[in-house]
């Protein structure tokens, strides 16, 4: 480790790529694991929490880390692909130490931990040796004084009754896909998760909740104040909100529906009137709907919306007035590939696929899956007996209902880098 810096700061490690000896990336750093015994003795760093491809988090012992520099981490390549599970004697440096309120013993100043440094001890172990603390600012715009002090000069890092903020972690989550942020949230200790949820804005929290396992969704929502829970549900897609509300106690569900905006609540109630494992229970009531006079240019402008999920952007639905579900009669559906081949000034209605059949809301999940497989679809319309569009089922919604209930908890299958067997455990 001759090229490794004598001191490395934890927050700067997060997100760095991890490479094997052949130079192949095997994952990214997400946290450090330390054995904290007291506030006097420097804790030993046991290893890294690495996120490997497939969002699985594994443990990488520090004995397998051969080099750390400003932009990457190198390992021996011998990794145990078993999912990381924190032990009671272990502390996560990023997840449980950063943003904790502490006291600097030499000055009596109180501040927030914004980074922690580690370095080699004489026995070549990595230990936590420095703590970077920022005092509260004197005004709204003026940042407080910062200190970098010895580990033994700080009080409060090992006490779980001290408050822990969420600013730094929120910044990290902002750069992640919603599914990856949900995995981070799922792995956090309960009190840390609560702080992060409280600091998230409603729209981002809604995106993350949609990717959480069902029990986590319920837990997060039940710990929010009723008014905020209703606001978050409004930001969620109606089908996901309906599934979540259905898992809540009836009195809680009724209260939240009362607090939601009437239009959003109406969509959710309508979806809840169908069995969950049917086309009606899976559909979203907000596909891209156009009138008969809409042009191809109009259609492409709608599907160009960056906030529109890929599966919903794949198809537009041409209907008679009204253009909100349940609409007037569905005239047909137009695939985006077809629209891209048509003149922008032509009518979108002229590009509809006359051979595409619609689903009825009572169609079972097996019937929906067979329909998607037969016509190679990523989305399909759902109509009532009068031919009015009720919504659209997308392939991601179908998969959500076909996979086992706990599929989000299971690690995705990951092939070891270079096809090698990986079997070194945590000593």
Task: Give the topology.
Elements: E1 7-9, H1 10-13, E2 17-19, E3 25-35, E4 44-51, E5 57-61, E6 65-68, E7 73-75, E8 91-92, H2 93-97, E9 101-104, E10 110-120, E11 126-134, E12 146-150, E13 154-155, H3 167-174, H4 178-187, H5 190-199, H6 202-209, H7 214-222, H8 226-235, H9 238-246, H10 250-259, H11 262-272, H12 279-282, E14 288-290, H13 296-303, H14 310-313, E15 315-319, E16 330-335, H15 336-340, H16 365-375, E17 379-383, E18 389-394, H17 395-402
Parallel strand pairs: 2-7, 14-15
Antiparallel strand pairs: 1-10, 2-3, 3-4, 3-8, 4-5, 6-7, 9-10, 9-13, 10-11, 11-12, 15-16, 17-18
Describe, in plain words, how this protein is organized in 3D.
The chain contains 17 helices and 18 strands. The chain folds into three domains: 81 residues, PRC-barrel domain (SH3 type barrels), CATH 2.30.30; 107 residues, Alpha Horseshoe (MgtE N-terminal fold), CATH 1.25.60.10; 115 residues, CBS-domain. It is elongated and about 80 Å long. The strands form four sheets. Strands 2, 3, 4, 5, 6, 7 and 8 form a seven-stranded mixed sheet that branches. Strands 1, 9, 10, 11, 12 and 13 form a six-stranded antiparallel sheet that branches. The protein has a three-stranded mixed sheet with strand order 14-15-16. The chain has 427 residues and is α+β, with helices and mostly antiparallel strands. Helix 16 packs across helix 17. Keywords: CBS domain. It comes from Nocardioides aestuarii. Pfam families: CBS, MgtE_N, PRC, SH3_actinomycetes. This is Magnesium transporter MgtE N-terminal domain-containing protein. InterPro entries: CBS_dom, CBS_dom_sf, Mg_transptr_MgtE_intracell_dom, MgtE_N_sf, MgtE_transporter, PRC-brl_dom, PRC_barrel-like_sf, SH3_actinomycetes.
């Amino acid at each position: 480790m001759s090229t490794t810096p004598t001191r490395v700061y934890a927050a700067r490690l997060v997100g760095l790529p991890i490479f094997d000896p052949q130079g192949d990336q095997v994952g990214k750093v997400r946290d450090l694991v330390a054995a904290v015994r007291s506030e006097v003795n420097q804790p030993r760093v046991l290893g890294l929490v690495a996120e490997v491809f497939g969002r699985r988090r594994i443990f990488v012992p520090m004995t397998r880390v051969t080099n750390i520099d400003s932009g990457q981490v190198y390992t021996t390549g011998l990794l145990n692909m078993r999912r990381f599970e924190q032990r009671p004697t272990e502390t996560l440096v990023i997840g449980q130490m950063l943003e904790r309120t502490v006291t600097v013993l030499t000055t009596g100043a109180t501040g927030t931990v914004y980074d922690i440094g580690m370095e080699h001890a004489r026995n070549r172990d990595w230990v936590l040796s420095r703590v970077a603390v920022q005092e509260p600012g004197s005004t709204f715009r003026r940042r407080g004084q910062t200190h970098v002090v010895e580990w033994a000069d700080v009080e409060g890092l090992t006490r779980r009754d001290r408050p822990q903020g969420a600013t730094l972690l929120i910044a990290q989550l902002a750069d992640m896909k919603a599914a990856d942020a949900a995995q981070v949230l799922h792995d956090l200790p309960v009190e840390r998760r609560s702080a992060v949820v409280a600091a998230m804005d409603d729209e981002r929290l809604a995106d993350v909740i949609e990717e959480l396992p069902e029990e986590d969704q319920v837990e997060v929502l039940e710990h929010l104040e009723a008014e905020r829970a209703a606001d978050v549900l409004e930001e969620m897609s109606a089908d996901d909100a309906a599934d979540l509300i259905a898992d809540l106690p009836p009195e809680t569900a009724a209260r939240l529906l009362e607090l939601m905006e009437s239009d959003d609540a109406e969509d959710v109630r309508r979806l809840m009137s169908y069995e969950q494992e049917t086309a009606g229970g899976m559909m979203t009531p907000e596909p891209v709907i156009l009138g008969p006079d809409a042009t191809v240019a109009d259609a492409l402008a709608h599907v160009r919306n960056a906030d529109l999920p890929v599966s919903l952007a794949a198809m537009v639905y041409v209907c008679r007035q009204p253009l909100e579900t349940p609409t007037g009669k569905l005239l047909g559906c137009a695939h985006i590939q077809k629209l891209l081949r048509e003149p922008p000034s032509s009518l979108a209605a002229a590009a509809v696929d006359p051979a595409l059949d619609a689903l009825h809301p009572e169609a079972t999940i097996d019937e929906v899956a067979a329909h998607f497989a037969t016509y190679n679809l990523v989305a399909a319309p759902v109509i009532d007996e009068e031919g009015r569009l009720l919504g659209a089922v997308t392939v991601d919604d179908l998969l959500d209902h076909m996979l086992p209930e706990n599929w989000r908890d299971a690690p995705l299958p990951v092939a070891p880098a270079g096809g090698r067997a990986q079997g070194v455990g945590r000593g």
